[in-house]
Amino acid sequence: MASEIRPRALACALLALSLASPMAAAHKAHTHGVGDLDVAVDGGRISLALTVPAADVVGFEHAPRTDAQREAVASAEKLLRAQAELFALPVAARCRFLSADVTAPWSGDAGAADAEHSDFAARWEFDCAEPAQLAFIEVRIAAKLSGDLKLRATVLDERGQRRAELTRSRTRLALR
Ligand SMILES: [Zn+2]
Fold this sequence. Notes:
Layout: H1 2-20, H2 22-27, E1 34-42, E2 45-53, H3 54-57, H4 67-81, H5 83-86, E3 87-88, E4 95-103, E5 119-128, E6 136-139, H6 141-145, E7 150-157, E8 160-166, E9 172-174
Parallel strand pairs: 1-7
Antiparallel strand pairs: 1-2, 2-5, 3-6, 4-5, 6-9, 7-8
Bound molecules: zinc ion.
């Protein structure tokens, strides 16, 4: 039971941080060319949550109007679900992929509230049998989406919270 409760407690801590801290609020501002990646590590469980401007994913931030734009949205969703393309974990950590959850703007009512800006959101979970081997995670999101995308990464684990910046060429996020 405890192993099911702890990740949720960590997710709550992460949410509380982003709600409570003015720094975190600024960190969440929508800026084209900049995405946010929150990484929570709890034992062998890794949760990654991405928010990235739609401009950096599909090149526009309005509801798709043409077939080409609808295709761009569909292929972006497919890419964000392809976790093997986006992440690499140390083999020795023996991680298995648990789930991916991708939310495109303009699905349902999601995009209606803010006509000026839209974001893609995605969440991935992994479970690793050898947490002591979790030295890093390779993040290839910037390279897959857009060469100029910067990711403001925040790692939250039992030691606290750390920040790092990831780009197309800077892909390794230290976890230890
Ligand atoms: Zn925007």
